[in-house]
């Protein structure tokens, strides 16, 4: 379990409180510093996946932790940026991105219970969305929105494109899972009760 790709993933999670602390420091260089930390975290997202494939070090722990680490640091960054961009214009893509992650995480968990998690595996659109999302957040973290409004607008524009791709990828995932979502129940009282017990007492 403690292979190098998984250690990189854990490092990404460990960087979150450091990233948050630096973001709130009363110094001008905090913008570049917080953006640099986020950039390092984004780089480890690519690197741990590459090393896992290259070294054949896939583990169930890594498969679980990698998307969790991505969602945590992206959500943390968006919440911090929302403070500096307290407008509907910024809140909308941030809400779309965070909401999508919640929906898809729940969908994957449900599909995993059915033994069909691969039906909602990460798509190419999802990978492009993630890359663009990371670039947009890095740009927004790196600039003071008051001192550099043009670069800030570029970052917001990139975030909107990422949000559109986010919705697109969500539609792709939901379409892949739709055959299971739209199945007619068998109306077997014992089966229904068993499923109900599993939902109430998942352990």
How would you briefly describe this protein structure?
The chain is mostly helical and 203 residues long. The protein has helices at residues 4-23, 30-54, 60-84, 88-113, 124-142, 149-181, 189-200.
Description:
The structure is a single chain. This protein is mainly alpha-helical. The protein has one domain: CDP-alcohol phosphotransferase transmembrane (TM) domain (Four Helix Bundle (Hemerythrin (Met), subunit A), Up-down Bundle), CATH 1.20.120.1760. Helices cover 79% and strands 0% of the residues. The longest helix is centred in the C-terminal third of the chain and has 33 residues, at 149-181. It is globular and about 60 Å long.
CATH architecture: Up-down Bundle
Anisotropy-based shape: globular
What low-confidence regions span 5 or more consecutive residues with pLDDT below 50?
A: none
Structural class: mainly alpha
- Estimated share of beta-strand residues: under 5%
Supply the number of helical segments: 7
Number of strands: 0
How are helices and strands ordered from N to C?
A: HHHHHHH
Number of domain modules: 1
Look at the structure and give the CATH class.
Answer: Mainly Alpha
The gyration radius over C-alpha positions equals 19 Å
Span from first to last CA?
A: 23 Å
In which range does the helix fraction lie?
over 70%
- Average residue pLDDT: 82
CATH level 4 superfamily: CDP-alcohol phosphotransferase transmembrane (TM) domain
How would a textbook summarize the main sheet? Answer: none
CATH topology: Four Helix Bundle (Hemerythrin (Met), subunit A)
């Amino acid at each position: 379990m403690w292979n190098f790709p998984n250690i990189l993933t854990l490092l990404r999670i460990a960087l979150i409180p450091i990233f948050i602390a630096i973001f709130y420091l009363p110094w001008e260089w905090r913008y570049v510093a917080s953006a640099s930390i986020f950039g390092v975290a984004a780089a480890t997202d690519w690197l741990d996946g590459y090393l896992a494939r290259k070294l054949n070090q896939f583990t169930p722990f890594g498969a679980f932790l990698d998307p969790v680490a991505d969602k945590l640091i992206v959500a943390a960054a968006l919440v911090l940026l929302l403070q500096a961009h307290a407008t509907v214009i910024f809140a909308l893509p941030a809400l779309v991105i965070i909401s999508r992650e919640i929906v898809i995480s729940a969908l994957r968990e449900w599909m995993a219970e059915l033994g069909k998690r691969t039906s909602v595996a990460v798509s190419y659109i999802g990978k492009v969305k993630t890359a663009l999302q990371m670039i947009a957040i890095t740009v927004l973290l790196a600039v003071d929105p008051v001192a550099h409004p043009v670069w800030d607008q570029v970052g917001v524009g990139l975030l909107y494109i990422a949000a559109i791709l986010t919705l697109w990828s969500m539609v792709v995932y939901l379409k892949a899972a739709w055959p299971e979502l739209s199945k007619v129940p068998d109306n077997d009282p014992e089966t229904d009760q068993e499923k109900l017990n599993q939902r109430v007492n998942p352990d």
